[in-house]
Amino acid sequence: QTKLVHITDIEKDKAVLEEAGRIIRAGGLVVFPTETVYGIGANGLNADACRSIYAAKGRPSDNPLILTVPDQQGAEKVAACITPTAKKLMDRFWPGPLTIIFPRQPQVPDAATGGLDTVALRCPDHDICRAFLRCADVPVAGPSANLSTRPSPTTAEEVMHDMDGRVDMVIDGGPCCIGVESTIVECDGEDSVTILRPGGITMDMLKEVVTYVRLDTNLVTGQGAPKAPGMKYRHYAPSAPMTVVVGTEAAVTAKLKDLYEDALADGKTVGFLVSQEVGAHFPKDDMYIWGRRGDKAALANQLYTGLLSFDTDKVDLILAEGVDGDGLGMAIMNRMKKAAGGNVIIL
Ligand code: TXA
Ligand code: MG
């Protein structure tokens, strides 16, 4: 039985957050909101509780969990050392959508880190989330609250679709404002970081603080094992196959028209996940408009809800419009490429 609770006011709803904290300390599962996507929380220092996250998500056990902390002091309790570069990153970007990889202290169980000797830490920029973390009073293991391989949920409704009956409590804090998962970085030398997963904190933002910012080779070439184990899995996938097209408004519209006509000729039903401008050229049914063309924040925010909307609409094919890879576009295109199984056309 999953208890769904709505939190609007941290003070007024204090008793509910305390109950959520007790569930975590007792080894249970609580879904919580963050500024990126919803997370499924368990006591990150309790191996059995961590294992029940894998069971609830149907997640492979070699894919490590992120530990979620309310502040830097929370990180000091589980990181074996904090380098000056990591400290600069925390000072600048916490609370916020940046996950940092640290060497772990021995009390962090293998069940949380997939056996790695490092631990991923994140401090969300979300008041309800941090109030919940303070009530829990332990680092909360918190992967995205979707079934493994599915798009991450950005509303409590989407959470309930995947997790109803699998967790003890879901805290509804309203829609997540960013909509794609946090950026993950590893500090790999003095004044140097590698991005393992692009996200809400962009490469340019990182360069304001750190001199050398690189991308994990796997993100650039698609070759080799990604350093964030979870990045190797098929992910974010809607139930229908998807093609993503990127280019000028005219080029994208023309290409999508071709693909649409081919699909109709094959007797297929088509869903569109496109900007307002491109959407205006196509019939209105099975159309998910993510926002104005070029508005990357809007696309990030609407991407997963858009993908999930076609699950219930049951189309045979999704035709989507992407964006260039600059800024937040890097995170968006990383997710779209995975959701489309690599089927991205750049015009
Ligand atoms: O925005 C987010 O980060 C969300 C919210 C809920 O906080 N969480 C999230 O967690 O996206 P999850 O579990 O869906 O993704 C965690 C990623 C996985 O790709 C995993 O392989 C990687 O982080 N990861 C975790 N620990 C790691 C470690 N020690 N070294 C390298 N990668 C790690
Ligand atoms: Mg995930």
The sequence of SSEs as H and E is: EHEEHEHHEHEHEHEEEHEHEHEHEHEHE
The portion of residues assigned to helices is: 25-40%
Tell me the name of the CATH class of the largest domain.
Alpha Beta
Outline the biggest β-sheet: 11 strands, mixed
The spatial strand order of the largest sheet comes to: 1-8-2-3-7-4-6-5-9-10-11
Computed CA radius of gyration, to the nearest angstrom: 20 Å
Count of DSSP strands: 16
The portion of residues forming beta strands comes to 15-25%
Structural class by helix and strand composition: alpha/beta
Q: Please state the overall shape, judged from the principal axes of the Cα atoms.
A: globular
Determine the CATH superfamily of the largest domain. Answer: DHBP synthase
Unreliable residue stretches: none
Distance between the termini: 49 Å
Bound molecules: threonylcarbamoyladenylate, magnesium ion
Number of helices: 13
Q: How many domain modules?
A: 2
Under the CATH scheme, the architecture of the largest domain is Alpha-Beta Complex
How do you describe this structure in short?
This protein is an alpha/beta fold. The protein is built from 13 helices and 16 strands. The longest helix has 18 residues, at 296-313.
What is this structure's SSE topology?
Elements: E1 3-6, H1 14-25, E2 30-32, E3 39-43, H2 47-57, E4 66-68, H3 72-76, H4 84-93, E5 98-103, H5 110-113, E6 118-122, H6 127-136, E7 140-141, H7 156-163, E8 169-172, E9 183-189, E10 192-197, H8 203-207, E11 212-215, H9 217-221, E12 242-246, H10 249-265, E13 270-275, H11 276-279, E14 287-291, H12 296-313, E15 317-321, H13 329-339, E16 344-346
Helix pairs in contact: 1-6, 12-13
The site of magnesium ion has 3 residues, from loops.
GO molecular function: ATP binding; double-stranded RNA binding; L-threonylcarbamoyladenylate synthase; tRNA binding
Organism: Megasphaera stantonii
Function: Required for the formation of a threonylcarbamoyl group on adenosine at position 37 (t(6)A37) in tRNAs that read codons beginning with adenine.
